[in-house]
Amino acid sequence: MKPIFLQNASELITLKGLSNAPLVKPVESDLSIIQNGSVLIDNGTILAVGQTTELKEMYPEKTSAADVIDASGSLVTPGFVEPHTHLVFAGSREKEFVMRLKGASYMDIMNAGGGIYATTEQTRLASHQQLYTQSFERLDRLMKQGVTTVEAKSGYGLDLENEKKQLEVARELNQKHALDLVSTFMGAHAVPSFYKQNPDEFIAYLINDVLPVIAKEGLAEFNDVFCENGVFTVEQSRRVLEAGKRLGLSPKIHADELESYGGAELAAELEAVSADHLLCASDKGIDQMAAAGVVAVLLPGTAFFLQKKMANARKMIDRGVPLALSTDCNPGSSPTVSTALMMNFGCLQMGMTPAEVLVAVTINAAHAINRGSLIGSIEVGKKADLLLFSVPTHHHLHYHFGENHVKSVIKNGVVRVKEGMLI
Ligand SMILES: N=CN[C@@H](CCC(=O)O)C(=O)O
Ligand SMILES: [Zn+2]
To answer: Which residues take part in binding N-formimidoyl-L-glutamate (predicted)?
Structure first.
C-alpha cells in the first residue's frame, strides 16, 4: 500500500489528546486546529500530523514517494462516527409517516401493530442476502456523507433466529464493506405479540435463550433496550441489561424518548456506555449521567421527524454530560443518513456551538461505542479515517446548512469517495 500525503489543508481539525475519555464542555481550542495542515498515512494508519512544511522536512523520502492529495482551500476532519443506527432492516414506512402527519402518534401506530412491528414483519420475511444488499447500499450512502464507522442494532427480529440473522448480516457487512461496523443486540426493542400478555416471559426468553447465543457467537458488543412507558419498564430493562453485562455485553439504553421514565437514571446506575434520545430526561437523570460519565447520544433527526421538542443539549452540556450526535438511521423515526443535517440541528435547534457539534460527531461519538482510542481524531497511530470538504473552515458546515459538503472520504488509508462520488 503506497503512503498518502494529504497536504495544505486550510483547516485541519485534529481533536488531539481526547482519546482516553469523552469530552465534557468542549471549547473551540479542543479542536486543536492546524492551519496549512497535513497528514502522512502509511498502511491505513496515521504516521504523522503537522504543518505541511514541517512534515515535508521531517519525512522527505516518505512524503515525496507518497500519493499526494492536495487539500488547499479545504477543511479536513476525522471521519464521522455514527454511534446509533438501526441499519439492517427491510421495507419502509412512508404510509405511517402520512398517518402521523394527520395526527396519529408514534405509539398509537405501534400499538395498532405498525411501527417496529411492521418492520419486524418485513425483516423476518427477508433473506440474509436481501438484508445484506439493502444494508450495503445504505452504508454506501452513509459513506458519501462522511461516515466512516457505524454502530448497527438488531431489534427487528424479536426472536433468536431473526435477531441472529440481522447481526450476521452486520458481521458480513463489516467484513466486506469498506466501513467499519460495531454491532449491538437489541432484542428488547418491542414485546412481540405472542408475549403481549406477559412481557416478563419475553424478557426471560431473551435472557435464557437468546443473549447467551449472541454472546457465545460473538455477534454483538453492546446490549440495548427500549426503556419507555408501554414498551419495557425500568425494572425489565435493568434485568435484560444486567444479564447482558454478565455475558460481556456493555449496556446502552433508548432512554426517556417519549416520556420522562427513569431511563437516564438507569443508564447511570448501570454505568451504561451511553443513553440515547433523552428528549424527556429529568434533571436528576442528567446529573446522575454526568456523575457516572455516561455519554448522551442525541438524535435530533428523530425529534424532528416525530415533531417533538429536541433534547436539551445545552442543559446536558452545562451540567457536565458528554454529548454525541447521531442520525438514528431507521425506517420509522429517522429515515435519514445525513450527519450534516444532525450537525445543523445541533447548532440551529439545540443551542450547541460549532465546536461542541464537531466533538459530538467525532471523538465523543467514538467514545459512545468504546472506540475512542482507535478513531474519532487525527492522531499518530489512529486509523486513517479522514474527510476532506469543499468548504475552507468548519463554520461553513453550519452556515451553508442542509448540504453535504464532503468531497473526499479516506477510510483506513484508502480513498473511497472522490469529488463526492464513490470510487
Ligand atoms: N425508539 C425506538 N427505536 C427506534 C425506532 C425504531 C422504529 O421506529 O423502527 C429509534 O431509536 O427511534
Ligand atoms: Zn434507536
So the answer is: 156, 330, 332
Q: For 59-76, b where at least 16 C-beta lie within 10 A, e where not — what string?
A: beebbeebeebebeebbb
Q: Name residues whose C-beta falls within 8 Å of residue 391's C-beta, 6 or more positions apart in sequence.
A: 74, 75, 397, 400, 405
* CB count in 10 Å sphere of residue 148: 27
Check: CB of residue 36 under 8 Å from CB of residue 374.
no
Please state the domain extents for the chain.
4-79+376-422, 80-368
Question: Is 2.30.40.10 the CATH number for 4-79+376-422?
Answer: yes
Strand ranges across the sheet with 33-34:
33-34, 11-13, 75-78, 386-389, 406-411, 414-418, 421-422
Query: What are the counts of helices (DSSP H) followed by strands (DSSP E) for the chain?
Result: 18, 19
| Contact criterion met (CB below 8 Å) for 271 and 253 | no
Closest C-alpha residue for ligand 1 atom 7: 332
Determine if ligand 1 sits within 6 Å of the CB of residue 119. yes
- Residue recorded with cell 496515521: 46
Ligand 1 neighbour 116 (Cβ under 6 A): yes
DSSP state of 66: S
Name the β-bridge partners of 388.
Answer: 76, 408
Q: Which amino acid is at 280?
A: C
CA–CA separation, 134 vs 169, rounded Å? 10
Q: What is the CATH topology of the domain spanning 80-368?
A: TIM Barrel (3.20.20)
Contact 183, 166 (CB under 8 A): no
Q: 324 with 23: CB under 8 angstroms?
A: no
Q: Which residues of the chain have pLDDT under 70?
A: none
HSE-CB for 169 with a 13 A CA cutoff: 33
pLDDT at residue 1 in the model: 84
**35-67 per-position pLDDT tens digit:** 999 999 999 999 999 999 999 999 999 999 999
Q: Which atom of ligand 1 is nearest to the CA of 332?
A: 8
Residue nearest to atom 4 of ligand 1 (CA): 333
